Amino acid sequence: DAKTTQPNSMESNEEEPVHLPCNHSTISGTDYIHWYRQLPSQGPEYVIHGLTSNVNNRMASLAIAEDRKSSTLILHRATLRDAAVYYCIPRRWGAGSYQLTFGKGTKLSVIP
Amino acid sequence: GAGVSQSPSNKVTEKGKDVELRCDPISGHTALYWYRQSLGQGLEFLIYFQGNSAPDKSGLPSDRFSAERTGGSVSTLTIQRTQQEDSAVYLCASSFASPGGETQYFGPGTRLLVL
What we know:
heterodimer; A: five-stranded mixed β-sheet; four-stranded antiparallel β-sheet; B: mainly beta; six-stranded mixed β-sheet; 48% strand
């Protein structure tokens, strides 16, 4: 599996945008980039995923670099509920690597 | 719609007792996973069920751990003769195949404490 590098922690003010970076320089051409998050005392939660094009959903946007060696999860207006650990996970479709493996992730703190 | 549910939400047991943890996946999801997470640690894969295929049990830490999935839906994880090191949050997830890899939907977990 591709290795990922994320900052250990980040802070954001409430209602401001947050850009969470992830480096995945060893990603293969068939790996999708998934993001999950885990709120305190809760199970992990799927956020978004993409391959090459930027992706948007109701939770966030995902900006993927042209060379696919990095991506950025964008929360457009951080709320207190967004305080969580965010994990970037390259995943290969159909290769049987179905189990999720979380790295250390980025702990996001949201300041009221 | 209803998400993944797990029961009990908390379980305290004495060392040596058996425990059963239950997972109700999202209706229609063919894949079901069990993970555990110790305090401040990452996810540890335990077992994976996919449709009618034989489960992948490669993550089970010992033969005291077993799991079943009945009728392709509800799953039970059983821990026999519990030990203190079994204390953790046990998470269940279910998924449907989607382009780009399966998106897994997690339950709230069962917090197991072995005294």
